[in-house]
Specification:
By secondary structure, the protein is of the alpha/beta class. The protein has two domains: 2-161, 3-Layer(aba) Sandwich (Rossmann fold), CATH 3.40.50; 172-264, ProC C-terminal domain-like (ProC C-terminal domain-like fold), CATH 1.10.3730. Helices cover 54% and strands 13% of the residues. The chain has twelve helices and eight strands. Strands 3-2-1-4-5-6-7-8 form an eight-stranded mixed beta sheet, sandwiched between helices. It is elongated.
Length: 265
């Protein structure tokens, strides 16, 4: 049997398959199923994975299934997969789709784990939260942990906490990209060439991120170490604080969390 069927050949499915192959899985252990022929052909040519246009066939040939389709296509896919899921169950990355709905579609004894990954998985720097369904077995938990550990750290939470995770790490890359846009725009308005501004901004963001993950020092301390009294950084931080940056971030994340709940029904 193929070890994993990936239903949906989009960006995240491709990123996860790439991570698994880079971590030692054979391309023959993965089968992609997608209704768009060009995408499955791309997965075959770029990754060497097995492919099919038949979602049910893919699931039936695999030990476990990863559901990676768009939210509007999820229920149709689940109806197609009902009765064809292998012994390692189903892992879903469909935004907002609760495990209870998946279990209802597949059958009450369905073994389901829900995952909230993020787009840095494309470069092996993802962060994923996992939540087990009411009937999840160890094999499904192990499959989910293995798939997402191939692209970054994994944490287990109660499903009720995934809306907050969506607001944090799920949407979080976009917050950083927006900050990068603003920094580059400000730098170019000061007279720096756009390419220079972009290089300096992106490297600064990556370097600061590495300091957060590799030094073991908390953000407040790292910020204080850069902020000399009466210096340039202190002047900039004062503007952020006076503008209510912390409140803005909190309100933005609450809005994302609220929308995640709405999408989940």
């Amino acid at each position: 049997m193929t070890r994993l069927a990936i239903i949906g050949a989009g960006m995240m499915g491709e990123a996860l398959a790439t991570g698994l192959i880079n971590s030692g899985w054979s391309p023959d252990d993965i089968v992609f199923a997608n209704h768009v022929r060009e995408r499955v052909e791309l997965m075959a040519s770029s990754l060497g994975c097995k492919t099919t246009m038949d979602e049910r066939e893919a699931a039936a040939s695999a030990e476990g299934t990863l559901l990676a389709v768009k939210p509007q296509d999820a229920m149709t896919a689940l109806r197609e997969l009902s009765g064809a899921i292998g012994p390692a169950g189903l892992v879903s990355i469909v935004a907002g789709l609760r495990t209870a709905k998946i279990e209802d579609a597949l059958g009450e004894d369905a073994s389901v784990v829900r995952a909230m990954p993020n787009t840095p998985a494309r470069v092996g720097k993802g962060a994923t939260a996992l939540a087990a369904g009411s009937a999840a077995v160890d094999a499904t938990r192990e499959l989910a942990a293995a798939v997402f550990a191939a692209v970054g750290p994994v944490v287990w939470l109660d499903e009720a906490q995934l809306d907050a995770v969506t607001a944090l790490s799920g949407s979080g890359p976009a917050y950083v990209f927006l900050l990068a846009e603003a920094i580059v725009d400000a730098a170019t308005s000061m007279g720096l060439p756009a390419d220079v501004a972009a290089t300096l901004a992106f490297e600064t963001i990556e370097g600061a991120g590495r300091m957060l993950t590799q030094t073991g020092t908390d953000p407040a301390t790292l910020r204080a170490q850069v902020t000399s009294k009466g210096g340039t950084t202190e002047a900039a931080i004062a503007v952020f604080e006076d503008a209510g940056l912390r409140k803005i971030v909190a309100e933005a994340m609450e809005a994302a969390k609220r929308r995640s709940k709405e999408l989940g029904g």
